[in-house]
Amino acid sequence: MTDLVVRRLLIDLEAPFDRHWCNGDAFRTAFFNALSMSFPVGEQFFIDSVRNGYKQLPAAEQQKYKAEVQGFVGQEATHRRLHALFNGHLEKQGLVNHWAPRSQRRLKKMDGVHPRHWLGITAANEHFTAIFAEWMLENSDLLDGADPRLKTLWLWHSAEEAEHKSTAFDLYQALGGNHEWRIKWFRRVTVMFLADTLRQTVSNLRQDGTLWKWSTWKSGASYLFGKRGLIRNAYRPWRDYLRRDFHPSQQESALSSRWLAENASAFAAVGA
Ligand SMILES: [Fe+2]
Ligand SMILES: [Fe+2]
Asked: Is the pLDDT of residue 180 over 90?
Protein backbone atom coordinates (compact mmCIF):
# COMPACT_ATOMS: atom_id res chain seq x y z
CA MET A 1 0.00 0.00 0.00
CA THR A 2 1.31 3.42 -0.89
CA ASP A 3 0.45 6.78 0.59
CA LEU A 4 -0.21 8.87 -2.46
CA VAL A 5 -0.01 12.59 -1.86
CA VAL A 6 -1.78 14.89 -4.31
CA ARG A 7 0.38 17.94 -5.00
CA ARG A 8 -0.42 21.28 -6.54
CA LEU A 9 2.48 22.40 -8.64
CA LEU A 10 3.54 25.99 -7.97
CA ILE A 11 4.47 26.95 -11.51
CA ASP A 12 2.84 29.43 -13.82
CA LEU A 13 1.76 27.61 -16.94
CA GLU A 14 -0.36 30.49 -18.20
CA ALA A 15 2.66 32.29 -19.66
CA PRO A 16 3.76 30.92 -23.05
CA PHE A 17 7.05 29.14 -23.64
CA ASP A 18 9.55 28.94 -26.49
CA ARG A 19 8.83 26.84 -29.54
CA HIS A 20 12.02 24.88 -28.76
CA TRP A 21 11.59 24.98 -25.00
CA CYS A 22 13.83 21.95 -24.43
CA ASN A 23 17.19 23.70 -24.51
CA GLY A 24 16.72 24.74 -28.14
CA ASP A 25 16.63 21.09 -29.21
CA ALA A 26 13.99 20.47 -31.88
CA PHE A 27 13.88 16.69 -31.55
CA ARG A 28 13.56 16.53 -27.77
CA THR A 29 10.97 19.29 -27.76
CA ALA A 30 8.89 17.48 -30.40
CA PHE A 31 9.22 14.18 -28.57
CA PHE A 32 8.11 15.56 -25.18
CA ASN A 33 5.34 17.53 -26.86
CA ALA A 34 4.09 14.31 -28.48
CA LEU A 35 3.95 12.52 -25.13
CA SER A 36 2.14 15.41 -23.53
CA MET A 37 -0.47 15.35 -26.30
CA SER A 38 -1.41 11.80 -25.29
CA PHE A 39 -1.81 12.55 -21.59
CA PRO A 40 -5.23 14.18 -21.16
CA VAL A 41 -7.09 11.37 -22.96
CA GLY A 42 -4.80 8.62 -21.67
CA GLU A 43 -4.85 9.72 -18.06
CA GLN A 44 -8.64 10.09 -18.11
CA PHE A 45 -8.81 6.48 -19.25
CA PHE A 46 -6.48 5.42 -16.42
CA ILE A 47 -8.67 7.26 -13.90
CA ASP A 48 -11.83 5.62 -15.26
CA SER A 49 -10.18 2.18 -15.22
CA VAL A 50 -9.07 2.50 -11.62
CA ARG A 51 -12.40 3.97 -10.47
CA ASN A 52 -14.52 1.39 -12.25
CA GLY A 53 -12.25 -1.48 -11.26
CA TYR A 54 -12.41 -0.35 -7.63
CA LYS A 55 -16.22 -0.40 -7.73
CA GLN A 56 -16.15 -4.06 -8.74
CA LEU A 57 -14.20 -5.08 -5.64
CA PRO A 58 -15.94 -6.66 -2.63
CA ALA A 59 -16.47 -4.17 0.22
CA ALA A 60 -13.62 -5.53 2.36
CA GLU A 61 -11.16 -5.20 -0.52
CA GLN A 62 -12.42 -1.71 -1.30
CA GLN A 63 -11.48 -0.60 2.19
CA LYS A 64 -7.93 -1.76 1.54
CA TYR A 65 -7.57 0.28 -1.65
CA LYS A 66 -9.70 3.30 -0.82
CA ALA A 67 -6.93 5.78 0.05
CA GLU A 68 -4.66 4.58 -2.72
CA VAL A 69 -7.38 4.90 -5.36
CA GLN A 70 -8.18 8.42 -4.17
CA GLY A 71 -4.50 9.37 -4.34
CA PHE A 72 -4.12 7.83 -7.80
CA VAL A 73 -7.15 9.67 -9.17
CA GLY A 74 -6.01 12.95 -7.59
CA GLN A 75 -2.51 12.66 -9.02
CA GLU A 76 -3.62 11.73 -12.53
CA ALA A 77 -6.32 14.40 -12.55
CA THR A 78 -3.68 17.02 -11.68
CA HIS A 79 -1.38 15.74 -14.43
CA ARG A 80 -4.22 15.92 -16.95
CA ARG A 81 -5.06 19.47 -16.02
CA LEU A 82 -1.49 20.75 -16.30
CA HIS A 83 -0.76 18.90 -19.52
CA ALA A 84 -3.98 20.25 -21.01
CA LEU A 85 -2.66 23.76 -20.25
CA PHE A 86 0.70 22.82 -21.73
CA ASN A 87 -1.01 21.39 -24.82
CA GLY A 88 -3.01 24.61 -25.20
CA HIS A 89 0.29 26.43 -25.82
CA LEU A 90 1.33 23.80 -28.36
CA GLU A 91 -1.90 24.39 -30.24
CA LYS A 92 -1.18 28.11 -30.34
CA GLN A 93 2.25 27.28 -31.74
CA GLY A 94 0.45 25.55 -34.64
CA LEU A 95 1.00 21.93 -33.63
CA VAL A 96 -1.85 19.52 -34.31
CA ASN A 97 -2.70 16.76 -31.86
CA HIS A 98 -3.53 13.66 -33.92
CA TRP A 99 -2.85 11.26 -31.08
CA ALA A 100 -5.72 12.26 -28.78
CA PRO A 101 -8.57 11.77 -31.29
CA ARG A 102 -7.01 8.48 -32.45
CA SER A 103 -6.89 7.12 -28.88
CA GLN A 104 -10.40 8.34 -28.26
CA ARG A 105 -11.65 6.36 -31.27
CA ARG A 106 -9.72 3.29 -30.15
CA LEU A 107 -10.89 3.49 -26.54
CA LYS A 108 -14.52 3.66 -27.69
CA LYS A 109 -14.16 -0.05 -28.41
CA MET A 110 -13.70 -0.64 -24.68
CA ASP A 111 -17.25 0.47 -23.87
CA GLY A 112 -19.04 -2.38 -22.09
CA VAL A 113 -15.85 -4.42 -21.65
CA HIS A 114 -15.12 -5.60 -18.07
CA PRO A 115 -12.95 -3.11 -16.09
CA ARG A 116 -10.40 -5.87 -15.57
CA HIS A 117 -9.40 -5.39 -19.21
CA TRP A 118 -9.33 -1.62 -18.82
CA LEU A 119 -6.96 -2.19 -15.92
CA GLY A 120 -4.83 -4.55 -18.02
CA ILE A 121 -4.36 -1.75 -20.54
CA THR A 122 -3.77 0.82 -17.81
CA ALA A 123 -1.23 -1.35 -15.97
CA ALA A 124 0.67 -1.82 -19.25
CA ASN A 125 0.70 1.92 -19.91
CA GLU A 126 1.70 2.64 -16.34
CA HIS A 127 4.66 0.32 -16.75
CA PHE A 128 5.78 2.36 -19.76
CA THR A 129 5.27 5.54 -17.82
CA ALA A 130 7.21 4.18 -14.85
CA ILE A 131 10.16 3.20 -17.08
CA PHE A 132 10.14 6.62 -18.69
CA ALA A 133 9.81 8.32 -15.30
CA GLU A 134 12.74 6.46 -13.80
CA TRP A 135 14.86 7.22 -16.84
CA MET A 136 13.90 10.92 -16.72
CA LEU A 137 14.80 11.23 -13.05
CA GLU A 138 18.07 9.43 -13.60
CA ASN A 139 18.96 11.66 -16.52
CA SER A 140 17.43 14.87 -15.24
CA ASP A 141 20.53 16.77 -16.35
CA LEU A 142 19.35 16.20 -19.93
CA LEU A 143 16.65 18.76 -19.11
CA ASP A 144 19.22 21.35 -18.05
CA GLY A 145 18.78 24.46 -20.13
CA ALA A 146 15.09 23.73 -20.66
CA ASP A 147 12.45 26.24 -19.55
CA PRO A 148 12.71 25.76 -15.75
CA ARG A 149 8.93 25.59 -15.31
CA LEU A 150 8.75 22.76 -17.79
CA LYS A 151 11.70 20.93 -16.31
CA THR A 152 9.83 21.00 -12.99
CA LEU A 153 6.59 19.88 -14.67
CA TRP A 154 8.20 16.82 -16.27
CA LEU A 155 10.18 15.76 -13.22
CA TRP A 156 7.23 16.21 -10.86
CA HIS A 157 5.06 14.14 -13.19
CA SER A 158 7.81 11.49 -13.33
CA ALA A 159 8.15 11.39 -9.54
CA GLU A 160 4.41 10.85 -9.08
CA GLU A 161 4.26 8.22 -11.81
CA ALA A 162 6.90 6.26 -9.93
CA GLU A 163 4.87 6.64 -6.73
CA HIS A 164 1.63 5.21 -8.09
CA LYS A 165 3.04 2.68 -10.54
CA SER A 166 1.54 -0.32 -8.69
CA THR A 167 -2.05 0.87 -8.31
CA ALA A 168 -3.55 -0.31 -11.63
CA PHE A 169 -1.49 -3.50 -11.54
CA ASP A 170 -2.70 -4.41 -8.02
CA LEU A 171 -6.32 -3.74 -8.90
CA TYR A 172 -5.98 -5.83 -12.05
CA GLN A 173 -4.80 -8.71 -9.92
CA ALA A 174 -7.36 -8.11 -7.19
CA LEU A 175 -10.06 -8.48 -9.86
CA GLY A 176 -8.62 -11.82 -10.92
CA GLY A 177 -6.75 -10.57 -14.00
CA ASN A 178 -4.53 -13.35 -15.32
CA HIS A 179 -0.98 -13.43 -16.66
CA GLU A 180 -1.95 -14.28 -20.25
CA TRP A 181 -4.18 -11.25 -20.68
CA ARG A 182 -1.72 -9.01 -18.87
CA ILE A 183 0.92 -9.95 -21.45
CA LYS A 184 -1.50 -9.72 -24.37
CA TRP A 185 -2.42 -6.16 -23.43
CA PHE A 186 1.19 -5.28 -22.79
CA ARG A 187 2.26 -6.38 -26.28
CA ARG A 188 -0.60 -4.49 -27.90
CA VAL A 189 0.07 -1.39 -25.84
CA THR A 190 3.77 -1.58 -26.74
CA VAL A 191 3.10 -1.60 -30.48
CA MET A 192 0.52 1.18 -30.26
CA PHE A 193 2.51 3.33 -27.88
CA LEU A 194 5.68 3.19 -30.00
CA ALA A 195 3.79 3.81 -33.25
CA ASP A 196 1.78 6.69 -31.77
CA THR A 197 4.85 8.33 -30.24
CA LEU A 198 6.73 8.08 -33.53
CA ARG A 199 3.84 9.41 -35.63
CA GLN A 200 3.15 12.37 -33.37
CA THR A 201 6.84 13.26 -33.00
CA VAL A 202 7.29 13.22 -36.78
CA SER A 203 4.14 15.29 -37.23
CA ASN A 204 5.38 17.86 -34.69
CA LEU A 205 8.76 18.09 -36.42
CA ARG A 206 7.18 18.46 -39.84
CA GLN A 207 4.94 21.25 -38.57
CA ASP A 208 7.98 22.88 -37.00
CA GLY A 209 9.97 22.66 -40.25
CA THR A 210 12.80 20.75 -38.56
CA LEU A 211 12.05 17.18 -39.66
CA TRP A 212 14.79 17.00 -42.27
CA LYS A 213 17.49 18.85 -40.38
CA TRP A 214 20.65 16.90 -39.65
CA SER A 215 20.72 18.22 -36.06
CA THR A 216 17.24 16.79 -35.43
CA TRP A 217 18.26 13.26 -36.44
CA LYS A 218 21.53 13.49 -34.58
CA SER A 219 19.74 14.50 -31.39
CA GLY A 220 17.09 11.80 -31.89
CA ALA A 221 19.71 9.09 -32.37
CA SER A 222 21.64 9.97 -29.24
CA TYR A 223 18.55 10.64 -27.13
CA LEU A 224 16.98 7.31 -27.98
CA PHE A 225 19.84 4.98 -28.81
CA GLY A 226 22.98 6.55 -27.30
CA LYS A 227 24.72 5.18 -24.22
CA ARG A 228 22.21 6.95 -21.94
CA GLY A 229 19.48 6.67 -24.57
CA LEU A 230 15.88 5.98 -23.61
CA ILE A 231 15.23 2.98 -25.85
CA ARG A 232 18.57 1.38 -25.16
CA ASN A 233 18.01 1.62 -21.40
CA ALA A 234 14.31 0.78 -21.43
CA TYR A 235 14.59 -2.64 -23.00
CA ARG A 236 15.50 -4.55 -19.85
CA PRO A 237 12.79 -3.08 -17.59
CA TRP A 238 10.33 -3.47 -20.50
CA ARG A 239 11.13 -7.18 -20.70
CA ASP A 240 10.71 -7.63 -16.91
CA TYR A 241 6.98 -7.09 -17.30
CA LEU A 242 6.75 -10.39 -19.18
CA ARG A 243 7.85 -12.38 -16.13
CA ARG A 244 5.12 -14.33 -14.38
CA ASP A 245 6.27 -13.09 -10.96
CA PHE A 246 6.68 -9.45 -12.01
CA HIS A 247 5.42 -6.69 -9.76
CA PRO A 248 5.98 -2.95 -10.38
CA SER A 249 7.42 -2.50 -6.87
CA GLN A 250 10.40 -4.65 -7.88
CA GLN A 251 11.66 -1.75 -9.96
CA GLU A 252 13.77 0.99 -8.49
CA SER A 253 12.09 4.27 -7.53
CA ALA A 254 14.37 5.85 -4.93
CA LEU A 255 14.97 8.79 -7.27
CA SER A 256 11.32 9.73 -7.05
CA SER A 257 11.30 10.30 -3.29
CA ARG A 258 14.64 12.04 -3.54
CA TRP A 259 13.38 14.48 -6.17
CA LEU A 260 10.23 15.19 -4.15
CA ALA A 261 12.28 15.83 -1.00
CA GLU A 262 14.77 18.09 -2.77
CA ASN A 263 12.11 20.06 -4.64
CA ALA A 264 9.49 20.48 -1.93
CA SER A 265 9.32 24.21 -2.59
CA ALA A 266 7.97 23.54 -6.10
CA PHE A 267 4.61 22.21 -4.89
CA ALA A 268 2.04 22.24 -2.11
CA ALA A 269 0.35 19.11 -0.84
CA VAL A 270 -3.41 19.28 -1.40
CA GLY A 271 -5.49 18.90 1.75
CA ALA A 272 -2.38 18.90 3.99
FE1 LIG B 1 0.26 10.92 -14.94
FE1 LIG C 1 0.16 7.24 -13.99
From this structure: yes
